[in-house]
């Protein structure tokens, strides 16, 4: 009988220790909604890659100390299948059934806005890397009772990115051309994102003194030769392949064969991809990444980041750098939770994010959210030497102070 | 004028790959009665296989033949394991083919990844004739397509096999009573159509990159070509491909470029309203017992 009593006491002590250990490592549920299948999979997988890396690093470093408890991040990753209805269903499940405290994602403006209609009323923070969110993030929307109070835009406003990109492209190409470029053609996919982004980029180029023609192509175009022949007839100084890196990688080699222009700009094409595909042009070519290139980064922190990111098995693609629109914000959010001292006070976390800054990987200057919950950082633009695939000259351009004439911001 | 001629040259190469996939669709539906929505994915698999083989150091033209054979084998497996059970229920086959297309897309993503794949231009030459740039590989694609069209056309219209096939389409029961192994012919047509899709994929990746989702885009044009020309009519597929190619090339050059896809589909709708059987007339599918 005495032995039984001793056994029970030991079991109780063991259970108490186990409970204490469990309490010491509580779970912080965070949702990730991204396209792991469907046509946006190229961008979607980068969000998952960034989330896995950040969560692993935070947990390996001991977790997040909030008050007297330590939390380990538990990711709940959902594939939205590039479908807005699946996105909404996933957001509902994560918010209502699992009870996540924050959600990272997703790839496009309309998907993110749909998610915000669910995360907002539930007071769940949302970090989305869509520059087009600027169209809806205004004073009223982000107010305490606004529907986007808990939504944060982890990519700069489009007029800022367009402005720094236009300036960087022209400053790199002008010395390479026989005469200063005057006529640009912006070549862009005719979808909602393409229309929104190009409207800012055209104005940014015009602010730099360019005469700009906009040529839009149907999404999913694979044979660009008729459209490129049309552009050739316009006799441009620069053709700017805007927005969709995958489409650009299809169209650009065709443009080279047809000799469409004396210089080019490729948006969203990483120098790493240019090198891996052994692309070569006998004319100057510039390119920029969203937000910092993995193939030719000026910052050691970025190089280290991508070594770890690819080390986890992420594929090297034209959009791999998009992962950096999501990575830093895990650490910033963790810092805000530690400061607030509670995980169940989203209003205090929002207030803390708005008054704090964070020095992350994506920018050498600490990140700060403005009053509309948007960050600002510079754009990296690179130029490849003609007839080479791997000799890059890169420059980091700061965004302009104000939108160009005719651009109402957003 | 140079630009106009350039657009005409572009139109020919635009049309070529579409003609190949259109012929595959037109044969499989027109002669076997199977609406295979995964036909575009068969083309994608052919392109991916070519990318893999060329990446491993194989000559492009050898890879092209092997890609055709590989996708022909894939077609054989699909017909034997799936579609032959739906011959009397075409709607089941259609839905099944949509499922197959999604499975093939994600199988390719699993085996490789989701990123687009490309190969270096196997020829790498551009001929400039009278101010018009002719990309040599595009000219080869046009030539290969022309040879395949000729072989298919004469095979269907002149050979004993072709005559038996056409008899099967006209009256399956009588053809079977006459000793024609209709089931085996259906399998043969499916394999041949799939083989053409594999070759089309190989030719396509020689011109521009492909992704696991390329097939779902190209299939719409393939069906448009088949319907414009007349389902089951090889000559019709060629005419349909040329019509679409010209509309694409000239509308992109001189119309609203963002509406390029819409122009060709409007032409398809008009033709189907005015000539429901297609420009050259089709079989409207086999007459099942």
Question: Concise description?
Answer:
The complex is a heterodimer of chains A (410) and B (289). Chain A is α/β, with parallel strands linked by helices and 410 residues long.
What would you say this structure looks like, in words?
The complex is a heterodimer of chains A (about 400) and B (about 290). Chain A has about 400 residues and is α/β, with parallel strands linked by helices. Chain A folds into 2 domains: about 1-155 and about 300-370, 3-Layer(aba) Sandwich (Rossmann fold); about 160-295 and about 380-395, Rossmann fold (3-Layer(aba) Sandwich), CATH 3.40.50.2300. Chain A is about 40% helix and about 20% strand. Chain A is built from 13 helices and 15 strands. In chain A, strands 8-7-9-10-11-14-15 form a 7-stranded mixed beta sheet, sandwiched between helices. In chain A, β2 (about 65) and β3 form a beta hairpin. In chain A, α3 (about 85-100) packs parallel to α4 (about 110-120), α6 (about 160-175) crosses α7 and α12 (about 325-340) crosses α13 (about 345-355). The longest helix of chain A has 23 residues, at about 1-25. Chain A is elongated and about 90 Å long. Chain A starts with a helix and ends in a 13-residue tail after the last strand. The model of chain A has no long low-confidence stretch (mean pLDDT about 90). By secondary structure, chain B is an all-alpha fold. Chain B has one domain: ABC transporter involved in vitamin B12 uptake, BtuC, CATH 1.10.3470. In chain B, about 75% of the residues lie in helices and about 5% in strands. Chain B is built from 11 helices and 2 strands, in the order ααααββααααααα. Chain B has a two-stranded antiparallel sheet. In chain B, α1 (about 1-30) crosses α9 and α1 runs antiparallel to α10 (about 235-255). The model of chain B has no long low-confidence stretch (mean pLDDT about 85). The interface between A and B is large, with 35 and 42 residues.
């Amino acid at each position: 009988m005495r032995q039984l009593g001793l056994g029970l006491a030991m079991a109780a002590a063991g259970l108490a220790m186990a409970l204490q250990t469990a309490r010491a490592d509580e779970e912080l549920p965070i949702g990730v909604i991204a396209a792991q299948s469907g046509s946006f999979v190229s961008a979607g997988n980068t969000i998952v890659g960034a989330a896995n890396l950040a969560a692993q690093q935070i947990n390996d470093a001991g977790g997040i100390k909030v008050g007297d408890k330590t939390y380990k991040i538990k990711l709940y990753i959902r594939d939205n299948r590039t479908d807005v209805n699946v996105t909404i269903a996933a957001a509902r499940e994560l918010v209502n059934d699992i009870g996540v405290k924050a959600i990272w994602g997703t790839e496009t403006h309309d998907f993110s806005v749909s998610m915000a209609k669910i995360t907002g009323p539930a007071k769940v923070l949302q970090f989305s890397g869509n520059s087009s969110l600027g169209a809806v993030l205004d004073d009223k929307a982000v107010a305490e009772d606004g529907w986007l109070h808990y939504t944060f835009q982890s990519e700069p406003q489009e007029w800022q990115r367009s402005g720094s990109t236009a300036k960087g492209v022209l400053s790199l190409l002008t010395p390479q051309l026989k005469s200063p470029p005057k006529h640009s053609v912006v070549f862009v996919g005719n979808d909602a994102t393409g229309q929104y982004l190009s409207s800012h980029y055209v104005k940014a180029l015009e602010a730099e003194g360019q005469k700009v023609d906009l040529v839009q192509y149907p999404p999913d175009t694979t044979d660009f030769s008729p459209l490129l022949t049309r552009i050739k007839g316009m006799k441009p100084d620069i053709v700017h392949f805007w927005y969709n890196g995958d489409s650009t990688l299809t169209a650009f080699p065709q443009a080279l064969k047809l000799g469409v222009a004396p210089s080019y700009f490729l948006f969203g094409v990483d120098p790493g991809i240019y090198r891996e595909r052994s692309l070569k042009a006998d004319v100057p070519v510039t390119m920029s990444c969203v937000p910092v290139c993995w193939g030719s980064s000026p910052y050691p922190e970025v190089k280290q980041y991508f070594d770890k990111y690819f080390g986890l098995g992420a594929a090297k693609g034209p959009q791999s750098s998009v992962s950096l629109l999501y990575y830093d914000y895990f650490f910033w959010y963790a810092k805000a939770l530690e400061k607030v001292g509670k995980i169940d006070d989203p209003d205090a976390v929002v207030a803390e994010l708005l008054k704090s800054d964070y020095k992350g990987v994506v920018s050498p200057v600490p990140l700060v959210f403005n009053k509309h919950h948007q960050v600002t950082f510079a754009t990296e633009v690179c130029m490849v030497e003609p007839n080479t695939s791997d000799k890059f000259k890169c420059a980091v351009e700061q965004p302009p102070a104000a939108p160009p004439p005719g651009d109402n911001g957003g | 004028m140079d630009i106009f001629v350039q657009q005409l040259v572009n139109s020919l190469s635009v049309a070529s790959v579409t003609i190949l996939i259109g012929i595959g669709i037109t044969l499989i539906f027109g002669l076997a009665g199977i609406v295979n929505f995964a036909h575009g994915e068969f083309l994608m698999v052919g392109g991916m296989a070519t990318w893999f083989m060329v990446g491993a150091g194989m000559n492009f033209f050898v890879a092209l033949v092997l890609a055709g054979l590989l996708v022909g084998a894939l077609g054989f497996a699909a017909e034997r394991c799936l579609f032959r059970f739906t011959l009397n229920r075409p709607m089941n086959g259609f839905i099944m083919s949509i499922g197959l297309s999604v499975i093939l897309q994600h199988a390719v993503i699993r085996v490789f990844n989701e990123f687009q794949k490309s190969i270096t231009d196997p020829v790498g030459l551009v001929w400039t004739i009278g101010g018009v740039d002719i990309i040599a590989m595009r000219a080869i694609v046009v030539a290969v397509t022309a040879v395949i069209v000729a072989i298919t056309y004469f095979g269907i219209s002149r050979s004993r096999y072709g005559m038996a096939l056409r008899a099967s389409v006209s009256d399956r029961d009588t053809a079977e009573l006459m000793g024609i192994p209709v089931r085996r012919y259906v399998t043969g047509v499916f394999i041949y159509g799939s083989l053409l899709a594999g070759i089309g994929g190989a030719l396509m990746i020689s011109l521009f990159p492909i992704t696991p989702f390329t097939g779902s885009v190209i299939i719409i044009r393939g069906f448009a070509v088949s319907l414009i020309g007349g389902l089951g009519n090889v000559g019709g597929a060629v005419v349909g491909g040329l019509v679409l190619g010209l509309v694409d090339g000239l509308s992109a050059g001189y119309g609203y470029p963002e509406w390029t896809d819409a122009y060709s589909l409007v032409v398809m709708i008009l033709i189907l309203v005015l000539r429901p059987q297609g420009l050259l007339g089709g079989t409207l599918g086999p007459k099942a017992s």
